[in-house]
Amino acid sequence: xxxxxxxxxxxxxxxxxxxxxxxxxxxxxxxxxxxxxxxxxxxxxxxxxxxxxxxxxxxxxxxxxxxxxxxxxxxxxxxxxxxxxxxxxxxxxxxxxxxxxxxxxxxxxxxxxxxxxxxxxxxxxxxxxxxxxxxxxxxxxxxxxxxxxxxxxxxxxxxxxxxxxxxxxxxxxxxxxxxxxxxxxxxxxxxxxxxxxxxxxxxxxxxxxxxxxxxxxxxxxxxxxxxxxxxxxxxxxxxxxxxxxxxxxxxxxxxxxxxxxxxxxxxxxxxxxxxxxxxxxxxxxxxxxxxxxxxxxxxxxxxxxxxxxxxxxxxxxxxxxxxxxxxxxxx
Length: 331
Ligand SMILES: NC(=O)c1ccc[n+]([C@@H]2O[C@H](COP(=O)([O-])OP(=O)(O)OC[C@H]3O[C@@H](n4cnc5c(N)ncnc54)[C@H](OP(=O)(O)O)[C@@H]3O)[C@@H](O)[C@H]2O)c1
What we know:
Distance between the termini: 15 Å
Strand content: 25-35%
Low-confidence stretches: none
Largest sheet: 7 strands, mixed
Shape: globular
Order of helices and strands: EEEHEEEEHEHEHEEHEHEHEHE
Helix content: 25-40%
Structural class: alpha/beta
Number of helices: 8
Bound molecules: NADP nicotinamide-adenine-dinucleotide phosphate
CATH superfamily of the largest domain: Medium-chain alcohol dehydrogenases, catalytic domain
């Protein structure tokens, strides 16, 4: 292959409105005209990538397209002069993999301002085991602590715990000294969740209260929620006074039909987490935490490595919530 050609997952829209995907050879001249060309070494597969790969127009408006919201690799050239050839870098979020050709490819070209220099204590592979999932979970903890969350305040609930964000949240919270209640639909993954540091495993039905009560007996001091819908409502109804609930995901539902009583009677905070557009200075601070005091010791045991050719086979399972841990793509 020439220096200009690269392999990429390519999703196309068919005339009948269906979508096809295949690994194909593309040319770097067809990448967007941004400053920094990166040779991608590792990427990862996230729920959002599965949406893009199946033609979800809320994530990706125009096809053909290469998904992949995460990329870690080596700078080949930088027109901005900020990075030099050979620098090891991480890109997560912004528009990567949404409407900008993404990390499920051997090359990406992105603006210099999207790039985080890889912290010394992380390998490129470790940075993609963490990926958007770990960065998002860590951002949730960072924001909760800004509102006074401390391990001694009590247990933290993690929902969708066996998934990518859930696994990373469980491992990061436990590394940071928190006692974690992991809510999962996969009882067979209880041992896996315990190995990440969860002290209690509950079935996801436990966090799906259907009573008309506005407040429930307090069960946790905070939560990292990946599920949305009635799970998020239950998390906020059953939170201790002054606790913090972070809203990350919508794998069940984007709806939030609730009362304000937990806010005005218990003083809880509902905190939004947007990993894509988080400001760069705080983004670097979080990556530095992930390379140091929040770096989970279990990274080796919480991922599966796949090739670009194998990615397609994981798209439907991730959409059905059947995968667990992180899926790392080796380019
Ligand atoms: N806000 C942000 O910046 C941001 C960043 C990253 C991800 N996200 C969002 O966070 C969510 C999780 O992403 P991910 O990459 O971790 O996905 P994932 O790996 O597919 O994990 C999702 C997990 O949720 C649980 N689940 C699936 N369907 C469910 C349902 N109907 N009801 C209850 N639980 C269900 C499953 O875990 P169990 O079997 O253990 O319950 C599943 O493994 C997605 O909605 C994603 O778009 C948001």
